[in-house]
Amino acid sequence: MPNVYDKLELLAITLPPPTQSVGAYVPVQRIGNIAFVAGHIAKRDGKPLAGKLGAEFTTAEGKDAARQVAIDLIATLNGAVGDLNKVKRIAKIMVLVNSTESFTEQHLVANGASELFGEVFGDVGAHARSAFGVAQIPFGACVEIELIAEVE
Amino acid sequence: MPNVYDKLELLAITLPPPTQSVGAYVPVQRIGNIAFVAGHIAKRDGKPLAGKLGAEFTTAEGKDAARQVAIDLIATLNGAVGDLNKVKRIAKIMVLVNSTESFTEQHLVANGASELFGEVFGDVGAHARSAFGVAQIPFGACVEIELIAEVE
Amino acid sequence: MPNVYDKLELLAITLPPPTQSVGAYVPVQRIGNIAFVAGHIAKRDGKPLAGKLGAEFTTAEGKDAARQVAIDLIATLNGAVGDLNKVKRIAKIMVLVNSTESFTEQHLVANGASELFGEVFGDVGAHARSAFGVAQIPFGACVEIELIAEVE
Question: A78-87, pLDDT tens digit by residue?
Fold first, then answer.
């Protein structure tokens, strides 16, 4: 079993600080060994990355944004679990894409997150998912992703 | 551990009757100690509270609607579990906000539910969540919320 | 306990081949006895059934599409679990309906899936659910459904 932190280093990924609680809810909550990670929105330089797929952003840009959200989710998991090697399964992700009424490539946007989980976690990262287009996202962000993981 | 019913009384909250099954699906289903509560839509005087955030409703009105949906969810949990003191964790909520394409304050609407769970359940109410804007909701309701809880 | 395959035969339902992995994610992932089934989109003759409720499709057509997605989900569960009689509970479904801004009958569309699960699985099929209208779905599909089941 490869060490997750070695994998992150190989991929030249530096984890940002984990998302902090903002009062009304928490970034991660658990039932037994199931960790529910709150929806994380796309950011750039610490600010919401706002815009719609099909208008302000291309599919490739959306995919990059989804990849970065996945890194933020990993950082939050790291803060909550304390050791990413204790993550036993990325079980499911839900990928929300801020979409115009005619944009239909949410699956390609979502691949930015799905592929990253595979690169970082290997077989442990093989997850089920849903991806779809929503009317809006808090702060106008282009992508929001929530995650369910199995942890030790 | 404070008694949840005392807390509801202190907050002057009277629980409505729990949501009943409507044939094709049930309001609560369980896997072991995990309770999945079906999406509940915003209502007023027993009828769907219809309209979009960003058009017919302000953020403050949406927040009030979300708070009321949270009360309805608690009533349904009460009906299913029989004793709210057996709720061990409000683990995750998903808050759907019926939004125009430009409304971006779904997180503030969702706080109406999140804050209520904190007031009623204290630490047990500290949940993960996702909030986002959807194109429509059954009956045109302004808000729909589903919930996952840990129960005894 | 009736045999699920007998029930499928009685209903004249032939299961299609289970959904295959497409690289970036898997059709079913488990945490213990909980199976998370990825979002499945509506298809006809193997191709995405594209269009919006409230525009290209009527509620009845959407309900038919949701029923067919439920059959595809059962086929995928069959492939993953190996024996549908080992499915102990269809716990929750999330039904996404590709909707115009004014279509508000997502619950009636969702009934196409909910009723099918009841017909095939009886009490085991009694599930919680959320149904709502989204701005778009991958490939423009009219319906997407994900599922959480308890399995042996």
Answer: 999 999 999 9
Domain count of the fold of chain A:
1
So what's the pLDDT on residue A107?
97
Pick from B47, B35, B45: nearest CA to B78: B35
Residue C32: is its pLDDT beyond 70?
A: yes
CB-CB under 8 Å, B140 with C132: no
> Strand order in B143-151's β-sheet?
B28-31, B34-41, B143-151, B87-98, B128-134
End-to-end CA distance of chain C: 15
* Separation of alpha carbons C41 and C33, rounded Å: 25
Domain range for B66 is 4-12+25-151
Q: Is residue B150 within a helix (H) or strand (E), and if so which, with residue range?
A: strand B143-151
> Which value does ipTM take for this structure?
0.96
Minimal CA separation from B57 to chain A, in Å: 16
Contact C136 A34 (CB under 8 A): no
Is C20 a member of any domain? no
Residue B18 maps to a domain: no
Show residues of chain B in contact with C33, CB under 8 Å. Answer: 31-32
What is the DSSP annotation of B38-81? EEEE-EETTEE-B--BTTTB-HHHHHHHHHHHHHHHHHHHHHHH
SS3 A72: helix
The CATH number covering residue B101 comes to 3.30.1330.40
B2 pLDDT above the threshold of 90: no
CA–CA distance, C82 with C103 (Å, rounded to integer): 38
Residue B135 in domain: yes
Question: Quick one: residue A32, left, alpha or beta (phi over 0 = left, psi -120 to 50 = alpha)?
Answer: left
Distances (CA, A) of C45 to B8, B152, C48: 54, 46, 8
* Residue C141 forms part of a structural domain: yes
Nearest to A110 by CA among A125, A124, A93: A93
Q: Which two tokens stand for residue C15?
A: 């299961």
Residue of C nearest to A101 (CA): C135
